[in-house]
Amino acid sequence: MTPFDLTGRVAVITGANTGIGQGIALALAQAGADIVTVGRSAADETLAMLPDSVRHHDIRADLSSAAPTAGIVEEAISRMGRIDILVNNAGIIRRADSVDYTEADWDAVMDTNLKSLFFLAQAAGRTMIAQGSGKIINIASLLSFQGGIRIPAYTAAKSGVAGLTRLLACEWAEKGVNVNAIAPGYIDTNNTTDLRNDPDRNASILARIPAGRWGKPSDMGGAAVFLASSASDYINGAVLPVDGGWLAR
Ligand code: NAP
User: How would DSSP label each residue in 123-184?
Assistant: First the structure.
């Protein structure tokens, strides 16, 4: 047993059919966790990549509203027995100049990226508090620290994720529940296809990353295992950049 061993723990990951959620699900499974994927699309590709020994269950839920959050926790517990780790990863981005940004885009981004994240944390937090232990990892962003351009709702939501991470950490640390966040840098996923397809944005982003490359979903795995494991038992309310050095520049 190492402090990073997750054998016997049950991890729930939202948006794990692709991208960062898939990378984190695979890393947690490789560290020994059993896996519950949650999303509006089937996570077949992710489940097929899991080691044979890993117990898993896939829950269909649309997190554009908070309505399914309590049911997700009930289903995960009824199928897997408990929840030890929640990774709040599902998220969307809608780009437009702020002068043109629509209320529909604002609501869609805030509902998925912030409201559902809070109510799923609340539902999981209740059961973790009752069992006296748990790890919640919210997926924040560089836009939890910076302003960005053309993504007002995303920046507001991800700044909110950082704030909620700190608030929940303050309320739940003494109850044995660690709440922390990972702030990915620029990662090669569906979320950033538009940026990578724009030669000027792509070049300016790459020029600022000290590591000299876009991140991969697998680059988030080590931080996720750390924050899911007993190695991080005295870490509460941290927002950990995993960004190839972007914020250091
Ligand atoms: P992605 O490949 O587009 O993955 C987003 C995931 O969220 C998908 O599984 C998606 O499911 C799911 N999702 C979206 N809306 C949902 C809904 N209403 N209900 C259930 N699931 C929903 O993008 P990603 O880059 O991996 O993003 C994952 C997280 O990382 C997001 O919170 C994003 O904001 C954050 N992030 C990404 C970057 C980056 O550079 N890529 C940087 C910082 C933070 P579908 O496949 O069904 O759409």
Answer: HHHHHHHHHT-EEEEEE--GGGT---SS-HHHHHHHHHHHHHHHHHHHHHGGGTEEEEEEEE
